[in-house]
Amino acid sequence: MKSTTKGSRYRRSQQRDRILELLKETHTHPTANWLYDRMREDFPNVSMGTVYRNLTVLADQGLVNRIGFDGTLDRFDANTAPHYHFVCDACGSIVDLDLPVDEALNRRVREVSGLIARSHDIQFRGRCASCGGKRTRGVRFR
Fold this sequence. Notes:
The protein folds into two domains: about 15-75, Arc Repressor Mutant, subunit A, CATH 1.10.10.10; about 85-130, 2-Layer Sandwich (Dna Ligase, domain 1), CATH 3.30.1490. By secondary structure, the protein is of the alpha+beta class. The chain has helices at about 15-25, 30-40, 50-60, 105-115; strands at about 65, 75, 85-90, 95, 125. Helix 1 (about 15-25) packs across helix 3 (about 50-60) and helix 2 (about 30-40) packs across helix 3.
Protein backbone atom coordinates (compact mmCIF):
# COMPACT_ATOMS: atom_id res chain seq x y z
CA MET A 1 0.00 0.00 0.00
CA LYS A 2 1.20 3.49 -0.79
CA SER A 3 2.03 5.70 2.11
CA THR A 4 -0.50 8.39 2.88
CA THR A 5 2.36 10.66 3.77
CA LYS A 6 4.44 10.66 0.59
CA GLY A 7 6.00 14.06 0.02
CA SER A 8 4.73 15.50 3.28
CA ARG A 9 6.22 16.49 6.59
CA TYR A 10 4.58 13.52 8.31
CA ARG A 11 6.22 10.16 8.76
CA ARG A 12 4.44 7.13 7.41
CA SER A 13 2.01 5.51 9.82
CA GLN A 14 0.36 2.11 9.45
CA GLN A 15 -2.51 3.38 11.57
CA ARG A 16 -3.02 6.43 9.35
CA ASP A 17 -2.89 4.23 6.24
CA ARG A 18 -5.55 1.95 7.76
CA ILE A 19 -7.83 4.89 8.66
CA LEU A 20 -7.65 6.15 5.08
CA GLU A 21 -8.33 2.64 3.79
CA LEU A 22 -11.39 2.33 6.05
CA LEU A 23 -12.71 5.68 4.85
CA LYS A 24 -12.27 4.66 1.22
CA GLU A 25 -14.08 1.36 1.86
CA THR A 26 -17.19 2.94 3.36
CA HIS A 27 -19.68 5.38 1.97
CA THR A 28 -21.37 6.27 5.25
CA HIS A 29 -19.36 9.39 6.16
CA PRO A 30 -18.39 7.85 9.52
CA THR A 31 -17.55 9.51 12.81
CA ALA A 32 -14.22 9.15 14.58
CA ASN A 33 -15.94 6.73 17.01
CA TRP A 34 -16.95 4.46 14.13
CA LEU A 35 -13.38 4.49 12.83
CA TYR A 36 -12.01 3.85 16.32
CA ASP A 37 -14.20 0.74 16.67
CA ARG A 38 -12.95 -0.61 13.32
CA MET A 39 -9.33 0.29 14.07
CA ARG A 40 -9.37 -1.77 17.27
CA GLU A 41 -9.81 -4.90 15.15
CA ASP A 42 -6.34 -4.38 13.63
CA PHE A 43 -4.74 -2.28 16.38
CA PRO A 44 -6.20 -3.42 19.73
CA ASN A 45 -4.23 -0.82 21.72
CA VAL A 46 -5.07 2.18 19.53
CA SER A 47 -6.39 5.17 21.45
CA MET A 48 -9.17 7.53 20.47
CA GLY A 49 -6.60 10.34 20.56
CA THR A 50 -4.51 8.53 17.95
CA VAL A 51 -7.53 8.24 15.67
CA TYR A 52 -8.31 11.97 16.04
CA ARG A 53 -4.67 12.98 15.46
CA ASN A 54 -4.45 10.85 12.32
CA LEU A 55 -7.75 12.21 11.00
CA THR A 56 -6.39 15.72 11.51
CA VAL A 57 -3.22 14.84 9.58
CA LEU A 58 -5.23 13.27 6.75
CA ALA A 59 -7.45 16.36 6.57
CA ASP A 60 -4.38 18.65 6.62
CA GLN A 61 -2.96 16.65 3.72
CA GLY A 62 -6.20 17.00 1.77
CA LEU A 63 -6.76 13.24 1.71
CA VAL A 64 -10.05 13.38 3.62
CA ASN A 65 -12.71 15.98 4.28
CA ARG A 66 -14.01 16.77 7.74
CA ILE A 67 -17.74 17.39 7.57
CA GLY A 68 -19.52 19.16 10.39
CA PHE A 69 -23.30 19.44 10.26
CA ASP A 70 -25.32 21.51 12.73
CA GLY A 71 -23.00 21.03 15.70
CA THR A 72 -23.14 17.23 15.53
CA LEU A 73 -20.05 15.06 15.68
CA ASP A 74 -17.72 15.57 12.75
CA ARG A 75 -18.04 13.04 9.98
CA PHE A 76 -15.26 12.14 7.56
CA ASP A 77 -15.25 11.58 3.81
CA ALA A 78 -12.49 10.15 1.62
CA ASN A 79 -14.20 11.61 -1.45
CA THR A 80 -12.33 14.91 -1.69
CA ALA A 81 -13.72 15.90 -5.08
CA PRO A 82 -16.15 18.83 -4.84
CA HIS A 83 -19.65 17.49 -4.25
CA TYR A 84 -22.87 18.22 -2.42
CA HIS A 85 -24.51 16.25 0.40
CA PHE A 86 -28.03 15.29 1.37
CA VAL A 87 -28.62 14.90 5.11
CA CYS A 88 -31.60 12.90 6.34
CA ASP A 89 -33.49 14.79 9.05
CA ALA A 90 -34.83 11.53 10.48
CA CYS A 91 -31.82 9.18 10.72
CA GLY A 92 -28.89 11.54 10.15
CA SER A 93 -27.46 9.62 7.21
CA ILE A 94 -25.36 11.60 4.77
CA VAL A 95 -25.54 10.88 1.06
CA ASP A 96 -23.23 12.16 -1.67
CA LEU A 97 -25.26 13.73 -4.46
CA ASP A 98 -24.24 13.04 -8.03
CA LEU A 99 -24.83 16.64 -9.11
CA PRO A 100 -22.36 18.95 -10.84
CA VAL A 101 -20.90 21.54 -8.49
CA ASP A 102 -22.02 25.00 -9.62
CA GLU A 103 -18.78 27.01 -9.87
CA ALA A 104 -20.83 29.99 -11.04
CA LEU A 105 -21.86 30.45 -7.39
CA ASN A 106 -18.26 31.30 -6.51
CA ARG A 107 -18.19 33.93 -9.26
CA ARG A 108 -21.56 35.28 -8.16
CA VAL A 109 -20.22 35.87 -4.62
CA ARG A 110 -17.52 38.10 -6.08
CA GLU A 111 -20.01 39.96 -8.23
CA VAL A 112 -22.36 40.79 -5.36
CA SER A 113 -19.85 41.27 -2.54
CA GLY A 114 -16.34 41.70 -3.93
CA LEU A 115 -15.26 38.66 -1.87
CA ILE A 116 -13.30 35.87 -3.52
CA ALA A 117 -14.83 32.46 -2.87
CA ARG A 118 -12.60 29.48 -3.66
CA SER A 119 -15.22 26.86 -2.80
CA HIS A 120 -18.65 26.42 -1.28
CA ASP A 121 -20.59 23.77 0.62
CA ILE A 122 -24.26 23.08 0.07
CA GLN A 123 -26.25 20.55 2.01
CA PHE A 124 -29.74 19.47 1.15
CA ARG A 125 -31.98 18.25 3.96
CA GLY A 126 -35.02 16.03 3.96
CA ARG A 127 -35.79 12.34 4.27
CA CYS A 128 -33.75 9.50 2.80
CA ALA A 129 -35.32 6.53 1.04
CA SER A 130 -35.24 4.41 4.21
CA CYS A 131 -37.06 7.08 6.24
CA GLY A 132 -39.84 7.76 3.77
CA GLY A 133 -38.29 9.73 0.95
CA LYS A 134 -38.43 8.38 -2.56
CA ARG A 135 -35.15 7.40 -4.15
CA THR A 136 -34.75 9.28 -7.39
CA ARG A 137 -32.30 9.56 -10.24
CA GLY A 138 -29.24 11.68 -9.55
CA VAL A 139 -28.77 10.35 -6.03
CA ARG A 140 -25.88 8.03 -5.31
CA PHE A 141 -26.25 6.34 -1.94
CA ARG A 142 -22.73 5.99 -0.59
